[in-house]
User: What shape does this take?
Amino acid sequence: MIHVPDVAAAAQWYVSIGFILDNVHVDGGETLWAHLTFGESTLLLNAGGAPSAAKRREVDLYIHVDDVAAAFRAVAPVAELVEPMYDAEYGMREFIVRDPNRFWLTFGQPIAPSQPAA
Assistant: This one.
């Protein structure tokens, strides 16, 4: 769960990059929390977070995907790219984007022995 200043806006952004909005709680016209999924990954957004201009926030999100190249094609054009696709020394092919609240999202897939380098 991450705390954000505007849950509705954050949820809308996550939906724009391919997350599915599963549930929200609205009270007095304000969205207080949202539950989203991306494949088997789950993200909870909660009201109360402070805006930030930091280069990197106190939480990074890691999302395992079955096809990192497809995720890159869908996400990179609509997100702030931090790191383009790369092969990490620990056997993952990854890329990193930043959400509107400055949280980093790393999308990663295990590198199969027969996969060519990114």
